[in-house]
Amino acid sequence: MEPDWQDRAFHHHIATLIDALDGPDFWTRTTRVIERFATFDNWVALVFIRGRAPLVCAESPMPDGTVDLLFRAYLEGMYQLDPFYINACERPRAGLVTLAEVAPDNFRMTDYYQRYFKSNIIGDEVQFNVPFDAQRTLIFSLGAKHHYTERDIAQFALFAPWVIALMRQRLAYESLIASDGVADVPQSEAVEPSALAALREADSAGRFEAVTQQNGRTPLTAREIEVVRQSLSGFSTRAIAERLEISFETVRAHKKHIYAKLGVSSQSELFALFYEPRAREGV
Asked: Which pLDDT score, from 0 to 100, does residue 192 have?
């Protein structure tokens, strides 16, 4: 069967991506090919690292050329509440991942959703994931102001095999391996050098320990920290009980003890304590 001109153009675009694999504009070119067939509003290529801040390979520029402060806040700590990050760390797999697949049952009720996701991503998100060792996953995220339709998801799924294949090949050209085993990133496309070391130390355990040590607070136990993290991520009390294999009432008791230890009375205060700099500095 004679291919039509659109098919020929598509194959040409894939060829240009293969040529761009070792170049600085690979990610930008990839988005340009995909956006010919599906509509999205922002994109980012990251390395998810279990227990550490994600590292930036490339990201879509702001329309006015300014720094995306919300995205910086994400890198500084809110990534810990990202359902895509949580899923990639807990169940790493290669392929297309949708928000509907990974979002906790109370995700849209969380402060993370209301204060970051709704403002920055706005509507929906999909990711192409490529785990490349036990700790790290290369991800390519496409965010939209609208909710993706079934047709959109089907289109992304259709593209997934070649996108994933190209991402695997791209790994050889990303500066991902440092001497300490932590991914490294070109400084021009990541955060400022002065912030990079801080981001690498901003794992969840360190963040929670630092906050609970302020003003002589009683430290949270490891189980209480896990309950806080899952609660702020959007897992309901029942879902947390199932995930931790404990009873519903035990989770409720943990939450009561957490609020008493930290001197907070709401989920929003809990979020502010751990993820809003002014709140952390002022306590």
From this structure: 45
Of 52, 222, 97, nearest to 230 by C-alpha is: 222
Residues 184-199: what's their mean pLDDT?
A: 40
Report d(CA 245, CA 135) in Å as an integer: 24
Give a yes or no: residue 197 inside a domain: no
Residue 10 has pLDDT above 50, yes or no: yes
Tell me the per-residue pLDDT of 127-155, one tens digit each, with 9 for 90 and over. 999 999 989 999 999 999 999 999 999 99
Residue 193: CB atoms within 10 A of its CB come to 8
Q: d(Cα 177, Cα 138) in Å, to the nearest integer?
A: 12
Q: Which domain holds residue 26?
A: 5-191
Instruction: Tell me the pTM.
Output: 0.83
Per-residue pLDDT, 13: 81
Residue type, 250: T
DSSP states along 56-92: EEEEPPPTTS---HHHHHHHHTGGGG-HHHHHHHHS-
- 184, 126: one domain: yes
Whole-angstrom distance, CA of residue 200 vs CA of residue 58: 18
175 and 267 in a single domain? The answer is no
Domain boundary residue among 145, 161, 191? 191
Quote the tokens at residue 281: 């500095």
Q: Is the pLDDT of residue 244 over 50?
A: yes
Band of pLDDT at residue 64, cut at 50, 70 and 90? low
| Pair 149, 250 in one domain | no
**Domain contains 115:** yes
> Which pLDDT value is given to residue 276?
80
CA separation for the pair 226, 233 (Å, rounded): 10
Do 95 and 219 lie in one domain? The reply is no
Total number of domains in the chain = 2
Q: What's the rounded Cα separation, in Å, for the pair 197 and 52?
A: 11
Domain termination residue (choose one: 140, 168, 191): 191
